[in-house]
Design brief:
alpha+beta; OB fold (Dihydrolipoamide Acetyltransferase, E2P); Chloramphenicol Acetyltransferase; 26% helix; 26% strand
Length: 543
Amino acid sequence: MAEIINMPRLSDTMEEGTVAKWLKNVGDKVEEGDILAEIETDKATMEFESFHEGVLLHIGIQEGDGAPVDSLLAIIGEEGEDISALLNAGASKEEATQEAAEAPEVKSDTPASTPSAAAEIPEGVEIIKMPRLSDTMEEGTVATWLKKVGDTVEEGDILAEIETDKATMEFESFYSGTLLYVGIGEGESAPVDEVLAVIGPEGTDVSAVLAGGIPASAETSKTEEKQAEPTVAEAQATAAPTPAVEGQRVFVSPLAKKMAKEKGIDLNTVNGSGDQGRIIKRDIENYKAPVAAAAASKPAAETASAPAAPVFLPVGEEHVEEVKNSQMRKVIARRLGESKFSAPHYYLTIEVDMDNAKASRVHINDIPDTKVSFNDMVVKACAMALKKHPQVNTSWNEDTTKYNHHVNIGVAVAVEDGLVVPVLPFTDQMSLTQIGTAVKDLAGRARNKKLTPAEMEGSTFTVSNLGMFGILEFTSIINQPNSAILSVGAIVDKPVVKDGNIVVGSTMKLSLACDHRTVDGATGAQFLQTLRMYLENPVTMLA
């Protein structure tokens, strides 16, 4: 029977693949484990092997063409087999998808997982969907359920804590009733508008509403199967790798198979150390012929006379742990990648004399109820320098450059899951003490995941400070849509030359990363000169 091969998901972020090269042609015989094609993903070009045997009857994606994951890639079956029904079914499915996309939107309260609009929602039942809790949110993760199935829910009760791309936020119910169904378990992620929960009168049967999704029995079975998986995985991980038995299927990676063929190694004699005993590259590299076979190949006298040299062989168990990326970490990775690879970065570094800044800070902090940090002074100096150099306070918009006449400085804050950038609106209008108070409040709430999305939006420039960790100098990736970001190093005491004499002085290095599309080198240099002037003469920031 013919088997449909779909475009595989070869990486966790892959949404589309491109066929770089077909290694089999229509009509070729395909063995299980043969390399069908080389597929280019969003991360690398990878070999894709067949898990079926037969003849390659159809190629759905030509070399150089791209297609979404799960698109028809190929069909393998028996020679001469009629596959017209499979091809027609695929075409009909594509046409139906196209028609659905072009059809006018019909507002419905039916869950997203229900394919049929005919299912009626019982009176009083409310479908709760994954909410869009920020403007950039595409999917959410349920961090904690505060209600469980069967609990009474009042309007305004907190149903769950939902992790977005920016923060973990409480999600309250807008309905009263009983929690009848939970669609997304703790730790699980789902796109916006997926069915999150169902609330309604106690005892209401919502199976008809969920008929298009997972039936209750199937859901229970799936849960039991999911709970059983770790036990199986643990058994496989603790079991010692054993050689494949001749006549049984040999699990082997394409590269290992190729290496074994080149070295003339019988795969049935190789211990597989990969998942489920799969033979991988290092198994071939570390392969040693079986002792009996090696001894038999030597003369008896040589074997008897050979001294037994002590050999130290370290033993141990390789251990790898995969931790699911949080929604925040995935968004950070995507946005930093977009910034680094789209904006042409260049970097400028200066060294600032901080003797006057240190003395001024002591005097300022002597004032009761006043606490100003060096970072606060840097933020204030940046705000004032941006007003003098508006070209740095811009955003690139392809056909236009947006000049921001307001100054909103973002301050990078390290949190458990990554990095967030709370924003100080109209920073140039704030005093040093106001900046200090605001930064302390925002940083504290950022670490407790209590920031709102609005407090992390609208920055025109960003400051990142690793000086408190003893980092002397570093560069940062621009926080889009800003045109620049300042990296602040530690203040160090070292010999410096003043008035022709070598004395001990305090210095700090500042590195400015600029988007060359909007900020030229001379402009960036002039901005840093102004910034240094303010920091070396703090009294100018108080005028």
